[in-house]
Structure formats: structure tokens, C-alpha cells
Design brief:
The protein is α+β, with helices and mostly antiparallel strands. About 20% of the residues lie in helices and about 25% in strands.
């Protein structure tokens, strides 16, 4: 049983910790919106973990780079990958590659990470969104985390899946529009 003074202290702490929706409202400049055919997805950007990656994503969103880009690799139980204008998984933006910004942030359902080659310093524009808590667990500390879905994960769940193994998608879903919440017009 919790003593009354401890319970009061816990209640006070809980009252000041923001919920995901309060955090989103507090910082629209760090909330990325991806419009899918099934509805919007809001991603809380994490500049404290990956300032270079967050700055790149913001720039690409402002440039309109992600609008209409396919989810070219989608593996059920693992993740949905996008961010390549060629739709092949081998393309990137005209900006240079980014240095890895690994952290101990644990990959879980809705975690957004930077896709790269076997060289840790080759992330550019591609990223993936994890479908569940277990599928991406092995990526923690190995791939840069730059965001976390705070709403619309049910829309991510509806992204068309690819072939077993490769994840290659025939007639893939696209990111219809991508922007920062602060830039919504």
C-alpha cells in the first residue's frame, strides 16, 4: 500500500509530466505530419537524440521532397520504409549523407529511424517506422532514432505490405504530403 504522502507526491509528478498530445501541442515545430490515404500520422521529432537527422527531415519536409514518395519496402511484423524518390531503396536527396547519431532510445512500436547501408554514416533521406515492440528491437544503438509516432499509428498499420523476405511492394502506398505541424496552412 502506498502511503498518503507518497501518493500525493506521485500525483503531483504525474500532473506535470506532459502527455504525447500535450507535447505535440507544445512544440509544433518538432512535429512531423505524414498524410497517408488512410489518414494522418504525427511524429514527434527528437532533436535531443539526433539533431542532424531532425534538421535534415525538417529541411526535406519544407522542400516538399517527401510528397508522393512510395513505401518501397514494407515487411510485416517489422517496419515500413520510405524516403527514396526512385522507389528502389538506393536513392537519396541531393544533400550529403549524415553521420550516425546512435542512442540508447529503445526501438518500439512507432519508433522512426534512419535507413542506411552497412556503413553507419550513410543515412540521407530514407527512414522507416516500426510496426511493433519486438520487430525492431535489435536496431537499438545500431540505427539512428529521430522520431516517435504520437498519433495515427493505426494508419501506419494499414500501409500495404510487401513480399515476404524482401519486403518489395507492388503498387505501393505513398506519403501523400509531409510537413511540419507548424507549417500547416
Amino acid at each position: 500500500m502506498i502511503r498518503p504522502t507518497i501518493a500525493a507526491a506521485l500525483t503531483a509528478i504525474i500532473a506535470v509530466v506532459p502527455t504525447a498530445s500535450q507535447a505535440q501541442q507544445a512544440d509544433p515545430a518538432n512535429t512531423l505530419v505524414i498524410e497517408l490515404k488512410s489518414g494522418p500520422v504525427q511524429i514527434q521529432l527528437l532533436p535531443n537524440l539526433a539533431p542532424g537527422h531532425v534538421a535534415r527531415v525538417k529541411q526535406l519536409a519544407k522542400d516538399g521532397y517527401y510528397n508522393g514518395v512510395k513505401f518501397h519496402r514494407v515487411i510485416d511484423g517489422f517496419m515500413a520504409q520510405t524516403g527514396d524518390h526512385t522507389g528502389t531503396g538506393s536513392g537519396g536527396s541531393n544533400y550529403g549523407n549524415l553521420k550516425a547519431e546512435f542512442s540508447s532510445y529503445a526501438y518500439k512500436r512507432g519508433t522512426v529511424g534512419a535507413a542506411r547501408t552497412s556503413d553507419p554514416n550513410t543515412a540521407n533521406s530514407q527512414f522507416y517506422i516500426c510496426f511493433n515492440d519486438t520487430g525492431c528491437r535489435g536496431l537499438t544503438g545500431q540505427y539512428t532514432v529521430w522520431g516517435q509516432v504520437i498519433s495515427g499509428m493505426e494508419n501506419v498499420d494499414k500501409i500495404k505490405r510487401g513480399a515476404p523476405g524482401s519486403g518489395a511492394v507492388t503498387d505501393p502506398d505513398v506519403m501523400q504530403k509531409v510537413y511540419l505541424l507548424s507549417d500547416k496552412k
